[in-house]
Amino acid sequence: MTDDELKALELSYEATIERAQQREEEAGKTPRYRAEERAWLHKRANDHYAQARDIRERIRAAVLDRQCPEDQDETSL
Asked: What is the full per-residue pLDDT of the chain (77 aa) written as tens digits?
């Protein structure tokens, strides 16, 4: 993974976390009598957090690949 690709993943992670936080804020401002909308907003926030976790794992894997390139050579034998 190139530096540019890694940076793009990091930016995507940050943006995804921001979207999740925005959904949580919207849900907090939504009146209780609009329970379906609140539930939807909370679900979307959770979906964004799940996406962020996936992105974070991809970043972590890319960093590990960079730190241990010799391990890749040995496993490909």
From this structure: 788 888 999 999 999 999 999 999 999 998 888 999 999 999 999 999 999 999 999 999 999 988 886 655 555 54
| Among 56, 46, 47, 44, CA closest to 9 | 56
Dist. CA 74–CA 69, nearest whole Å = 9
Please provide residue 17's backbone torsions phi and psi, each rounded to the nearest 5 degrees.
-60, -45
d(CA 49, CA 9): 14
In a 3-state reduction of DSSP, which class is residue 23?
A: helix
- The DSSP secondary-structure symbol of 32 reads T
| Secondary structure percentages of the chain, helix, strand, coil, to 5 | 85, 0, 15
Residue 75 and residue 40: Cα distance in Å, rounded?
A: 44
| pTM listed for this prediction | 0.74
